Amino acid sequence: GKPEEALGYLEKARKGGENLAEIYSAMAQIYLEGRHYSEAAKAYRDLLAVDPDNAAAEFNLALCYEALGSYPEACAAFQAVIRNAPDLIDAYLGLATAYTKRGEFAQAQAAYQAYLKTHPDSFPAQFGLGVSFHLAKQHDKAIEAYKKALHLETNSEEALANLAAVYTEIQDFKSALSFYDRLVTAKPDSWTAHEGLAYAGFRMERYQEACGHYEAVVKLNPQSFEGWYNLGATRQKLGRLQDAASAYREAGRLKPDAVEPHINLAIALEQTDSETDAVAEYQYALRLDPRSVTALYNLALICEKRSREAEAADCYQRLLGEKPDFLDARFRLALVLHKANDWQRAAPVYEQCLKEKPDWAEAWLNLGIVYLKMEKRAEAQRAFSRCLELTPDDPEALLGLATVHVQAQNLDEARKLYRRLVELKPNHPEILFNAGLLEQRANNHRSAVQLYTQAISHKTEFAEAYLNLAIAQQGLGDEAEASKAFEKAIRLKPELARGYFALVTPGSPSVQ
Hints:
This protein is mainly α. The protein is 78% helix and 0% strand. The termini are far apart.
């Protein structure tokens, strides 16, 4: 029980030069028992220098190398044992372990299989073989080996956990659940079992079960950041948003520099209509990671919702600096610039979107509207026309193209487009009214009367429609009906009377 004194006496004896093999063997054994592996390895090397055929010393030297993480030296030593003492079969186990640690899985498997030829009921060898297949991503062989190991030790926590993990990796969550269930039955307080059951349940959308197991995970290990974070995500899936927020806050407390809990907390707060608190969490997340794409995007969306276009644009621009290929963010940047009436900046952003996605009808439509606002009629016409090639019955694109033609005094083209619009939106009073105006400009008074009448049927107090109906009826020579329509117009909007009398001077009636 006094290893230091023993080593002192052995050192004196070594200097005497007698019985060196016995002295080195004793010294190595003392160091090995005290887990002083470096000193033990030196003693075994000294022993082998005077007794090179000592297989036990070579074997123990290999064990020391393995304990020190010197796996190449361990492999060489175990191989020497196998060459010199084939009956020392445990060397195959040590060699297999060393190869596994080195990532040389094929050699490890060969060593395990060599051992299993003489020891087919060895659980460590069968389990180790499973591990080597598992690490090599040879999932089918790993499953077979782990099942054989479980046949030898039915309730082995390691084998059950590893087999379930293989099934999880190949996304066979049903099988994973069955083995995690066996594990939790054998060991009810197994953190590994509850964590595995929770994850597999989550992936199978069995959120209630997953939630219960994540609650067990954090009960077993209250300091588990992943446990609290995943508990928050599961509660969020169940719509338990306040409870989810509590879990995310605990995850954030355990790992203050983690961005994800603050982002998910912000999302949960948004879902409970706590937008102000959500904004604060997104901003905190961005202080932790100014490059967080999710935080920037979600914060930009809230700013859009609040009509804070400048702040939204800033978020989108920062986001695109991090992820230039995020096309939806680029489109939304164009949209907020558009809403802010910043046509000059919006147009090139829409154009850039369309370089990436030429068949994006909505982008063509919005680009057309922007160019129309900028009074660039040729560019607007190009954009609206392209939108209509992609979506021939898009009413907004038809309306935009019709507006271009009206501004260019191409009234025949505008009238054709409005006829299509009336077919698409026969109950839209403003479209019916404008279609009537164009027919009236072309002296198609009967068509105009029909369109104004339809507009009034959908908007009964449409004063301007009554007024223009009166003028169209005058054009048809129906003064009695025109008078009724006019009276209705001025009852609804008396200020129209002055304009009417100014317009109906001798000659052709004008359209208001």
